[in-house]
Amino acid sequence: MSPLVQLAISLAWLFAVPTLLLLAGLRPVGRPRLAAFASQYGVTVTVDNGPFLIGYLARTTRWRAIGGAAGWLTATVLPLPGGSLLGAAVGYLLGALAAEFRTSARLITPAGPRRAALEIRRSKDYVSWVDRWGPALTVVAVVFQAGSYLIWPSRLEAHEVAGAAIAAGGLVMAGLALLMWASRWLVTRRAQPLVSPELSAADDAVRASSLQAIGGVALTLMCLVASGVTWGIAQNLAAPAPFSWVSTLLPYLLVVAAVYARVAGSMRAHRVRRRWAA
Length: 278
Known about the structure:
Blueprint: H1 3-25, H2 31-41, H3 50-77, H4 83-105, H5 129-151, H6 163-189, H7 197-234, H8 243-267
Helix pairs in contact: 1-3, 3-4, 3-7, 4-7, 5-7, 5-8, 6-7, 7-8
């Protein structure tokens, strides 16, 4: 294969995925997509809340696509850890955060005097137990693996665990957990004016969608980082059975958890608990 053909294939691979992401993210919001979002979150689309939902879908899809494309290009051009897919996931997460800041800056403006609802909103009203407890369970898995290494370390000096790499993984996980908590605080504490029930329901659906998108990708990245950390520790363990079995399976289980957090979480959206609407 000639160098020119190899260069053409490399450039096609470099720009194919970002181009597809941008084409999907910048397309107009049609009726089928609006209806799918409304069905997913149990919202009735009306003349009152339709423009609000269309604006949200267009804005979030655009920012997430731009972030994913930028992350893919950055991770492909620069030799970053994790490769292009991980770079696209990080970019998608940053794009989702940027979209949420834009959404918070565009609050619903009610007609007449401004009044805000006094109902207390919590993250459990918008996300499933996986998003709420996933970060804690991931940390528990890493702590178990690290504790096992402290009790049964390998005596092979050539395979000693790199403490700096484990510490770096822990810092990344802590940063992702902090990001998830901050996004929940931002979304749930955002003021909701007293508007029509249809518009209020649309606003709750928007909050749920934002939290699930940010939390799902952050938890996926957190599980992948934890899988890498636990895998490195497992290679340097001299634990007896059954602890050695658990330590060996743990990295693979975290990869499965990462896939579940992203794929299953996006396919089965958590319905909003509208206790205040009763």
